[in-house]
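Hi V.,

You were right to ask for the full record rather than a summary. Here it is.
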Amino acid sequence: MIKEFEYLAPKTLKEALKMLEEHADECKVICGGQSLLILMRQGLVTPAFIIDIKGCLSSLISRTAKTG
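Predicted structure:
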């Protein structure tokens, strides 16, 4: 069974970095995350926070593509 955790989904790189700073010792970062969920189900990893960077990376890539 997966231990309770808080899911965080920053929209910008700045938000992601702030969340990482605040929760550094008790978080895991995902960008998809299937492997992490398996480890969590097995009780091998028990983060208090999950930071999903997929949204901020998509935003960053989109912005970079527009500016060339």
